[in-house]
Amino acid sequence: MFGSLLTTLGMITKVFINQNFWICVVGQVFAAIGQPFLLNAPTKLAAVWFGDKERVAAITIAVAASALGAAIGFLIPSMFVNNDDK
Asked: Which of 3, 18, 24, 56 fits 34 for a cystine, CB–CB 3.0-4.6 Å?
């Protein structure tokens, strides 16, 4: 919950309160502080919810989903930003 809260606070700071570069940097710092809490979640979740023979598959799927989510996060904004100099 703490990691999600910090990541959300960072996103809100970067998107809605973005008045200058340093406000954006502060938002990125909030998101960066929250990331270690989220990146360790798949192993903890697999240890609690899955049996010994299922843990490796559960961790693999969770980590792959995280990487896929990041890739989608890089691709989607490029669909909305154009490079016209008009």
From this structure: 3
* Nearest Cα residue to 24 out of 11, 35, 33: 11
Q: Report yes or no: 14 and 34 within 8 Å, Cβ to Cβ.
A: no
Q: How would DSSP label each residue in 2-33? A: HHHHHHHHHHHHHHHS--SHHHHHHHHHHHHH
Contact (Cβ atoms closer than 8 angstroms) between residue 6 and residue 30? yes
pTM, entire model:
0.63
pLDDT tens-digit readout, 1-34: 898 899 899 988 888 887 888 988 998 999 999 9
